[in-house]
Design brief:
Pfam families: DUF2599 (PF10783). The protein has 117 residues and is mainly alpha-helical. It is 40% helix and 5% strand.
Length: 117
């Protein structure tokens, strides 16, 4: 899969994206199903969103950081590696866009994240 799957929360989604078990479950189940359907299937009938484990990891990362809007744009990219360590640490830095399977940050460089003083 070469093109990213881009997901944008609706106004209802933003209003209901709260850090509670019930709301996170809603996003992890119904929200993921919606992403899968919108992304479509490949020629073999497999949902594009299910083609790589890292896509679901990125989605879960955005759900975890999304209620505070610290996880950046919800672009789910199939070329990103599957994480072997947790993606939870420092979400505000990597914004669910890690570059390696096991580093802590792996996303944007500090120049892109921090303001120069």
């Amino acid at each position: 899969m070469k093109s990213p799957i881009n997901a944008t929360k609706s106004a209802w989604g933003q209003a209901n994206h709260l850090p509670t078990a019930a709301k996170i479950k809603l996003f992890q189940q119904a929200g993921w199903d919606e992403v899968r359907l919108k992304a479509g299937r490949n020629a073999k009938g497999v949902y594009h969103a299910d083609s790589r484990k890292s896509i679901k990891q990125q989605y879960s990362c955005h759900v975890a950081g999304g209620y505070a809007n610290i996880a950046g744009t919800w672009n789910l990219e199939g070329w990103r590696p599957t994480r072997t360590k947790t993606w939870v640490y420092q979400v505000q830095h990597h914004q669910c866009n890690w570059k390696t399977a096991n580093n802590r940050y792996g996303g944007h460089s500090s120049k892109a994240v921090l303001k120069k003083h």
